[in-house]
Amino acid sequence: MELKIGDIAPQFEAITDSDKKINLNDYKGKWLVLYFYPKDNTSGCTKEACDFRDNYERITQTGAIVIGVSPDSVKSHKNFKEKYNLNFDLISDIDKKICNLYGAIGTKKMYGKTYEGIIRSTFIISPDSKIAEIWRNVKVNGHVDEVIKKLNELIQKS
Questions:
Q1: Were 104 and a residue from 67, 77, 121, 122 both cysteine, which residue would form a disulfide, CB within 3.0 to 4.6 Å?
Q2: Number of domains in the chain
Q3: pTM for the full model?
């Protein structure tokens, strides 16, 4: 079943790049930008992470928090975060449980081959743990600006 705006955000527990165990309840009362990306240190994923990094202050000024999720290991996330000086947590979802809960996994094609992969997706989760906005098959260029614009709109309405 695909998540829709207004649905309760699926609960998860995970390990971050700093070896900290977190779960969705830790963010109750806050706006959360949860974004899913395929792989650390690849061109599109690096650009997206750096866009979130470069706009982090604009996001946190709204009161929101950013968390990135991919199937990479904690060690890979640590290296990625250090290399690009990322200023937000990255969740290691090796078994892809969180990706599946949020429907951020599906059939992809590359070089004529079909495979199961992570679909670049972003979710804004409201302070009452509801899905407030969803982007699927995200195009990296301009995406972070779209997220910030939507966050501002949602916060003004709340």
A1: 121
A2: 1
A3: 0.95
